[in-house]
Specification:
The structure is a single chain. The protein has 385 residues and is an alpha/beta fold. It is globular and about 75 Å long. The strands form 3 sheets. A 6-stranded parallel beta sheet has the order 10-9-8-11-12-13, sandwiched between helices. The chain folds into 2 domains: 213 residues, Glycogen Phosphorylase B (Rossmann fold), CATH 3.40.50.2000; 147 residues, 3-Layer(aba) Sandwich (Rossmann fold).
């Protein structure tokens, strides 16, 4: 089918951390989707750094660059009285005007903010002036009782995309007339594969991999994975990530597993395919995970998964691993032992359901519907005048 006529539609995605932070799911989402939507539209991604020919620098201070500044001992106590994540607030505030001016000077047919409430506020400001419709994907789901989604819906996106029926129902309870679509996240099946070069972690095999930000008392619940792997006499645990509590996790891991069976490493996003395929199983015992790109990347790389038994993980993991009560360390350890005994091709085959190309096709249709509906409504309003 020929889509040349669609190229007149200009779609602008927004994420001021894209290209700067390669560990965040929403940043990867914005880049991967922008790459593929370029086949159907005139696409621009307002990003924090160059990550493709489709990018334009958003301006402002990305949250990664503000991270050390807001944690300076002299100002951190003051800032944290006003915001849990002041580095994100700084990104939102400093990128608001540059992104808005770009969209006012070069009009879009649709704005697609991917950086939560900061992007939504900016897009709503532009829409008030230009009438540009807003598409928004809720990446946090119902974490924290749906506070993030409730806040974002106050900006009244013209269309919402969520990951599950449960989140869709919650959104409709708040805004019954809002068009809501359910579209999963995707994975690059050409990049994340079982075949290719590997990394020697210098750990006894089998190696269980966990990819997560290292922060105590977070929803990732990394401590549960550490306790479970500690019950396996021969397995090692590799924590891949970084965060403000890295030292805490290093000490805890050395206590539970010993330094010879435990390590914390940080890798660039380009190295992650090699990291996944070099491990023997993947686990992430998080709670209230809205989706979880790491599960897809692991399965696409051939790794069986052990994770929390909930609605979203049942959909994502399916027969690509085992879901269990990860709060019970013995049950959790038994599940890890079972997947390490051999899981065949099932993880990779399951990951094939989440190709980014297929996801982009679904977004293409949603974007077209949103733009066309917006133009129809504008036409009706003009006729009434």
């Amino acid at each position: 089918m020929n889509y040349e006529w669609e190229r007149r539609y200009r779609v602008v995605l927004v994420h001021p951390s894209a290209g700067v932070n390669w560990s965040g799911g929403s940043e990867i989402f914005a880049i991967e989707l922008a790459k593929r939507l370029g086949s159907y539209f005139d696409v621009e991604l307002l990003s924090g750094a160059e990550c493709g020919s489709f990018c334009h620098l958003a301006g402002g201070i990305p949250r990664v660059h503000a991270y050390d500044m807001v944690r300076h001992p002299l100002i951190a106590p003051l800032l944290h009285r006003f915001a849990t994540h002041p580095e994100i607030v700084i990104e939102h505030l400093t990128s608001f005007l540059p992104c808005a001016l770009r969209l006012l000077r070069r009009s879009a047919d649709l704005i697609f903010p991917c950086n939560d409430y900061g992007g939504m506020a900016m897009a709503a400001f532009v829409r008030a002036i230009k009438g540009t419709p807003i598409l928004f994907t809720e990446h946090v789901g119902l974490m924290g009782g749906g506070r993030s989604l409730s806040r974002n819906l106050r900006f009244r996106p013209d269309r919402l995309v969520v990951f599950s029926e449960t989140v869709a129902a919650f959104a409709h309870s708040l805004r019954p007339s809002l068009p809501v679509s359910i579209i999963p996240n995707g994975v690059d099946l050409d990049q994340f594969t079982p075949e290719g070069t590997r990394i020697d972690f210098d750990l006894p095999k089998p190696v269980v991999l966990c990819v997560a930000g290292l922060k105590r008392n977070s929803h990732k619940r990394v401590e549960l994975a550490m306790e479970a792997v500690a019950r396996l006499p021969d397995a090692s645990l590799l924590l891949c990530g970084d965060g403000i509590d890295r030292d805490y996790f290093q000490v805890l891991g050395d206590e539970l597993l010993g330094s010879e069976r435990f390590a914390i490493r940080s890798f660039s996003y380009e190295q992650m395919p090699k990291v996944y395929r070099s491990a023997d199983a993947f686990t992430l015992p998080s709670i209230d995970e809205a989706f979880g790109l790491a599960y897809l990347e692991a399965m696409a790389s051939g790794l069986p998964v052990v994770a929390t038994d909930d609605e979203m993980r049942r959909y994502i993991v399916a027969d690509g691993g085992i879901l269990c009560d990860v709060s019970n360390p013995d049950t959790y350890a038994d599940a890890l032992t079972e997947v390490l005994s051999g899981w065949g091709q099932k993880p990779r085959l399951n990951a094939l359901r989440f190709s980014w190309d297929a996801v982009a096709l679904s977004y293409r249709d949603v974007i077209l519907e949103t733009i066309v509906q917006s133009k129809l409504e504008l036409s009706v309003q003009t006729d009434k005048i």
